[in-house]
Design goal:
single chain; 234 residues; alpha/beta; Rossmann fold; 5-stranded parallel beta sheet; globular; binds zinc ion
Length: 234
């Protein structure tokens, strides 16, 4: 029965091949979600350990942190930006796992993760998570964890306040919008640890800063660092 099913799947693939989420070309054997060319073309940032990289500059002077980085540059209306959109709004958690894994491999190689003890994905408010079916930052964290074995803490911090979307808000409005929205649920999980706060897209950094402030103020955390899959420069 399984052999027949497998044969049917192969036939289906022959007539309806899986296509690359970026360029739309048919994927070849062994390719998954992105073709090799588009994988090589990801507009990566590559500055994980560079002090004063563009991501660190966003957080500098705002909150105490060790380091910060992102995987790629988010340019509106590009197919790479659409990957994040599909992860957030089109139920494509498989894209999030892949992006997380690619990012994880890179972070691991760069040494960025050398003293990170656990990842805290930016929590969604439970209402939004229920509507979406998952927390996209948690999915990205799963991808990173798959290739690094770093633990994910998704019960330590919660988002207690349901906020409006941050898009189309100024830097000041964004900061105000997310002020005090996070709460610690279990401080013991954070104690003595260097935590990597992970978001999907960093724009002004307001959400990450708010989450870090809550963690730093209300737990005995050792330190925090920041990472995101995409960096949207304004
Ligand atoms: Zn492609």
């Amino acid at each position: 029965m399984n052999a027949i099913f497998e044969r049917l799947r192969e036939l289906f693939q022959l007539f309806f091949p899986e296509t690359c989420e970026v360029c739309g070309n048919s994927l070849r054997y062994g390719e998954h979600i992105l073709c090799t060319d588009c994988l090589l073309d990801v507009p990566k940032i590559h500055l994980h350990n560079l002090e004063h990289n563009p991501v660190e500059n966003i957080f500098a002077g705002q909150v105490p942190f060790v380091r910060a980085t992102s995987f790629f540059n988010y340019q509106k209306h590009t197919e790479y930006a659409h990957l994040v959109h599909k992860l957030k709004y089109r139920n494509r958690d498989d894209i999030g796992i892949l992006l997380g894994e690619l990012f994880g491999v890179e972070l691991q190689k760069s040494g960025f993760l050398s003293d990170i003890d656990a990842i805290v994905p930016i929590p969604l408010h439970r209402k939004r998570e229920r509507k979406r079916g998952y927390n996209q930052s948690r999915i990205l964290a799963e991808g990173i964890s798959n290739v690094t074995n770093i633990a994910i803490l998704d019960n330590a911090v919660i988002r207690a306040v349901h906020t409006q979307t941050q898009t189309r808000k100024s830097k000041e409005e964004r900061a105000k919008n997310v002020e005090g929205i996070f709460e610690i649920r279990d401080a013991s999980l954070l104690e003595g640890k260097h935590i990597l706060i992970l978001d999907d897209v960093i724009t002004t950094g307001a959400t990450c800063i708010s989450c870090a402030e809550t963690i730093l103020r209300q737990s005995n955390v050792k330190a925090v660092s920041f990472a995101s899959i995409a960096l949207a420069q304004r």
